[in-house]
Structure formats: C-alpha cells, structure tokens
Amino acid sequence: MKGPTRTVLVSVAALAAMTGFVAASVPLYSLFCKVTGAGGTPRVAAGGPVAKTGDLIEIRFDGAVMKDMPWRFQPRQTSMRVHLGETSLAVFTAENLSPDEITGTAAFNVTPAKAGPYVDKVQCFCFSEQHLRAGETAEMPVSFYIDPAIATDPETSDVHTITLSYTFFKARPQPGGTPKSTKSTSLPASEGKS
Fold first, then answer.
1. Mean predicted lDDT score pLDDT of the chain
2. pTM to 2 decimals?
3. Given CA atoms 29, 30, 34, 39 in this order, what sign does their dihedral have?
4. DSSP 17-63
5. Which long-range contacts (CB under 8 A, 24 or more apart) does 157-162 make?
6. In the chain, beta strands by DSSP E
7. How many CB atoms lie within 10 A of CB 163?
8. Average pLDDT over residues 146-159
9. Would the pLDDT of 14 be above 90?
10. d(CA 94, CA 143)
11. Mean of the pLDDT values across residues 33-44?
12. pLDDT of res. 180
C-alpha cells in the first residue's frame, strides 16, 4: 500500500473509532452513574421503602427540554416536604407542541450529587421512552422515597433540600427507522398534588 492511500485508510479508521467512542460514551457514562451513584444518579428501588421516620426533607422539582424537542415539560408541583422513608408521588406534565408525533426520553439528575445514592425511585416516566401524538398532553408520575440513612451519613447530614431535575430529549430512532414508543402513564387530575 502506497503512502497517500495508507494515510487515507488510517485516517478513516481513526475517524470511525472516534465516532464509535463518542456514540458509546453517553450510554457507558449513564451505566457508570447508575452502578456507582456518581453524578447524582438516584437508585432504582429494588424493594419497598425502609421504615418512615419523623425527619422531613424538602424535595424540589425541575423540568426542561432540549432545544430540538418541541415539548413543554414542567412539574405540577415545584416542591414538597416528605418524611424520610415515605413513598411520595410527584407529577410532571408534558405537552407536544409540534404537528408531529414525537417520542422522547428523560434524563434525570439529583442535586446535590452526594444525595443521589439516597434517592430511590419506585416508578418513573424516565425508565422508558414516552410517546406523544401531535398536540397531546400527558401527566407523567414519579414515585420515590428518600432513604433515611441520608440523615446519619456524615457526608449528607447537612442536606435539607434535594432537587430532582428531568430533561427530555428526542429519542434516537431504533433499527428500522422509528423510535421505540411506549405510552406514558397518565394520572387523574386529583393525584400527585402536594
């Protein structure tokens, strides 16, 4: 193989490797955060909540969408006070503002990050893709509890407020060209209010 041809092939191979690394970095980072609790990633509760305590903590909620996502997404409640160990329900509202059906996925984060391992999600719209028809509005619940161990951990004993943030972005198309769609869970208007 001659010099210029070899240089082109090496460059193309390097470009392909870099593209593969970039494509794999987000899922790998998400997996790392879920396993370690790093970056404020909450745990998915394997069982029910632990015993409820008398200690209260304030939970704040934040909703956002990426620039290319034509949805309105916001929490129905901006904050609530919950007992440690008590299962609580928060509800977010999403509205598809576009004339097209759109499937979205929510990324979540916990602030402060050191509280992430103590936030246990029982059920969350962020566990699966959400599909909204043109102009459709849906309520999206998240059921969670705060592990009472947060109050006895010296690293988190100063945490009195936790913010749960969710950001929706367009779902990537699955093989076959269309996003995998799952219907969002809707709640009656009376549930989830604080």
1. 80
2. 0.66
3. positive
4. HHHHHHHHHHHHHHHHHHHH-GGGPPEEPSS------S-EEEEEEEE
5. 159/57, 159/112, 159/114, 159/115, 160/57, 160/58, 161/57, 161/58, 161/59, 161/60, 162/57, 162/58, 162/59, 162/60, 162/110, 162/111, 162/112, 162/115, 162/119
6. 43-44, 56-65, 71-75, 79-83, 88-96, 102-111, 119-124, 130-132, 137-146, 161-170
7. 16
8. 94
9. no
10. 17
11. 50
12. 46
| Closest by CA position to 130, among listed 99, 91, 100, 96 | 96
Contact 151, 55 (CB under 8 A): yes
User: Residue 142 is encoded by which pair of tokens?
Assistant: 């998240």
Which tokens hold the place of 190?
Answer: 């009376």
Tokens of 50: 């632990």
Length of the chain: 194
Q: Which residue has the tokens 């705060």?
A: 146
Task: Kindly indicate the confidence band of residue 183, based on its pLDDT and cuts at 50, 70 and 90.
Answer: very low
Is residue 85 within 8 Å of 53, Cβ to Cβ?
yes
Lowest pLDDT segment from 29-33, 76-80, 90-94, 159-163: 29-33
Angle at 91 between CA 167 and CA 112, to 5 degrees: 50
Q: Which two tokens stand for residue 103?
A: 């499937």
